[in-house]
Amino acid sequence: MNPSPFAQRKTLPHQVPSWVGQGARHFVTINARDRAAAPFAAPAVAGVLLDNLRVYETLGKWHIWIAVIMPDHLHFIATFNLDDAIHKTVAAWKGYQTRTIKLQFQRDYFEHRLRDEDEFVEKMIYIRENPVRKQLVTSSADYPYIIGSGGSNW
User: Fold this and answer.
1) Could you give the C-alpha distances from 51 to 37, 47, 120, 132, in angstroms and in order?
2) Domain 25-147 class?
3) Longest distance between any two alpha carbons in the chain, whole Å
4) 128 burial class (0-12, 13-18, 19+ CB within 10 angstroms)?
5) Tens digits of pLDDT across the chain (154 residues)
6) Where are the alpha helices (DSSP H) in the chain?
C-alpha cells in the first residue's frame, strides 16, 4: 500500500518501437523542476539553451525542426539519430545543462512521435504560438527564443 494519499506519478516508456525508422519526427517537452521560479526566463539562460540545442544538432544527435524556450519549459520537434536511444540523448542534454548552467529539470520529459504531416504542422504551430498563448508577446515573430521554421512556408 502506498503511504502517500496522492497517486504516484507514472513514468512513460521512451523506447522507440522497432518499426519506427530513422527520420521520424518527435515532439518533446522538458520542464524546469521549479516551474514557478521561471528559471529559463533570463535572456542569457534562454540563449544558452537554444545554443545547446544547436550543439547537439552539430554533434549529430538530432535535427531540430523548431524549438521554443519558455520561462518554465521548452518544446521542440526533432528527428533523433536512432543509433542512440532517445531517452539517453535527452538525459545527456539535460545533464549537460545541469552541469554547465546549473539548471534543474523535472525527472522525466514528454515525447510523442508525430505520425503524419498534419500532426507535424499542428505541433509546429503549437510551438510557434506558445509565447503568444502565454501572453509573452503579441506576435510569435517578436519572440526571441524560438529557432527553426520546420521547412514549411506556412
Assistant:
1) 22, 6, 23, 22
2) alpha beta
3) 54
4) buried
5) 555 566 555 555 555 555 456 688 999 999 999 999 999 999 999 999 999 999 999 999 999 999 999 999 999 999 999 888 899 999 999 999 999 999 999 999 999 999 999 999 999 999 999 999 999 999 999 999 999 865 443 3
6) 43-58, 86-101, 117-133
Report the DSSP pairing between strands 73-80 and 25-31: antiparallel
C-beta of residue 104 within 8 angstroms of C-beta of residue 32 = yes
- The single-letter code of the amino acid at 119 is E
Query: Helix (H, G, I), strand (E, B), or coil: what is residue 44?
Result: helix
3-class secondary structure, 93: helix
Nearest CA among 23, 101, 110 for reference residue 75: 110
Write down the residue that cell numbers 533570463 correspond to.
42
Cell readout for 140 is 510569435
* Nine-digit cell string for 98: 545541469
Locate 15 and state its grid cell: 523506447
Separation between Cα atoms, residue 45 and residue 69, nearest integer Å = 9
Report the pLDDT value the prediction gives residue 3, as an integer from 0 to 100: 59
